[in-house]
Amino acid sequence: MQSDDLRRRAHHALDAVLDPELDEPITDLGFVHSLDADDTGRITVHLRLPTSFCSPNFAYLMASDAKDVLSALPGAAAVTVVLDDHHDSDVINRGLAADAGFRGTFGPEAEQDLEELRAVFRRKAHAAAMERALTRLLRTRPGLTDEGLYDVVLGDLPDDDTTRALLRRRAALGLDPRPTAPVLVDDHGERPRPEDVPLRLRFARATRISIEGNAHFCRGLLRTRYPDEATDHQSLAPHREAVS
Amino acid sequence: MYAKDGETYFVVDAHIALWDARPENQLNIHGKQFIDCFYDYHRNLSPESEVWPYEEYLYYGSERLMKDLFAEGHVDHAIFQPALLSAFYRTGFGQTEEAFALAEQHPDKLTYNHCWDPRHEQAGLDQLRRDAERFHLKGVKLYTAEWQGDSRGYKLDDPWSYRYLETAQELGIKNIHIHKGPTIRPLDRDAFDVADVDKVATDFTDLNFVVEHCGLPRLEDFCWIATQEPNVHAGLAVAMPFIHTRPRYFAQIIAELLYWVGEDRIQFSSDYALWTPRWLVERFVDFQIPEDMDDYAPLTVAQKKKILGLNAAAMYDIPVPAECAVTEPAAV
């Protein structure tokens, strides 16, 4: 069926929408409550979040990103994204329906669009990915000290998911992807002074712990809030299998 | 007081509430959404045996509060940190009169902190002077995501906010508890960002700034500013119950706070009635950093004593029996 194919592609497209704060896809987090597509190309998505009081700016960001990726799909004729059970559901859903943008949706409450907010969380996601890669390297190389991380370059990292995740975060910030590029850098790609390396690593660790803790808390709250409903994985499982 | 293995712990619960979220006090749907969000926090992070029925959670009253904290909860002294949420509840969320009356009745056990909202401008400043006298204020609780009219939050470095902090300093209200929420103005910024705390902590060095839930969900930003500002403290509201659901994550939070902030600037709280203190106190006294997390040093008894009560007692001049002290007193 045409609609099944569109639905599969729609779900795949939503995998690219991240919760910027948690740095994970909304499909993995269970934020996609339902996804429907019909033969006329109409797609309807309902999103739901762990609490009614999740930050409205992040809620808007994920919902509008979802609408953008779905609208870009070949064969998508009309896309409706609905945010359920949020304190700003009415405002956000009106804004999404009208393609009003963030400022158009929130009026005087918003001074700018959300690019700076996005950038803040891209930087945090990079710090966390960098810490994961370096801490793992410390564990696998007994002689390596925190101070020694100053000299570690991308080419020293193993070719695996952790390194690939770091490379994606670096690309998002426009940082040097070459194997000779140093790994431990700040948000602008600059190396700290050698004596500041342990502190920088430590700060990146606090960032990683914070993000991971928040992600776990949000998943738990979502389960507590919607205990009787299938999770996103379950409700979409047949379609997932069809994809793989 | 709580005694275990020959050690006696003086317990200060630095963040408690007496709220009324019953339907008759809800002004609108947001009143229900807010307490439902709290109840999900409560259900999600409490051990099953400690989960309350929803009806009791809406309103529990003075008597139950006294029982949960002092009769059963090992708490020696507790501090009210009210959120008014006047846009959601008719008589407010935190029940000012009932809580203050209780504190008047038990001054040895309870301290009442009040709150202000800088968007009330001059009228609010005048009210603050009256409140300081009536409530004998030593501290205030500021919820920066409070909704008011068209505005859904403020920052601590807004011009009127500065005037309130100046007045607090003049009136001897030294302890400013800060609670970040999901909304501020403008909405395009990260509402949980703590950069404004950094600014006011630099400009008001006589005041203590206790950042509740230790900056979570921005632990790293909080830790960073706390290393720069000696008058910034970590409140453990909301972080504590992870001791049950995610002990390894809790270990990381505590270890990071000890590294960045230090053992003299961390305060225990149950965030009652989000959670009840008894199990949190007992678990914390028994808690240890898991052995395989060898980046982190084990927690000492002295550190636990400071966090559980001595730090907040020093901040609020609460007398501590000699047997509960550590050799080196907590400094504020």
Automatic annotation (TrEMBL), chain A:
Gene3D superfamilies: Fe-S cluster assembly (FSCA) (3.30.300.130)
InterPro entries in UniProt: FSCA_dom_sf, MIP18-like
Organism in which the protein naturally occurs: Streptomyces spinosisporus
Domain MIP18 family-like, residue spans: 12-81
Name of the molecule in the record: Iron-sulfur cluster assembly protein
From TrEMBL, chain B:
Every Amidohydrolase-related domain range: 12-318
Transmembrane segments: none
Organism annotation: Streptomyces spinosisporus
The protein's name in its UniProt record: Amidohydrolase
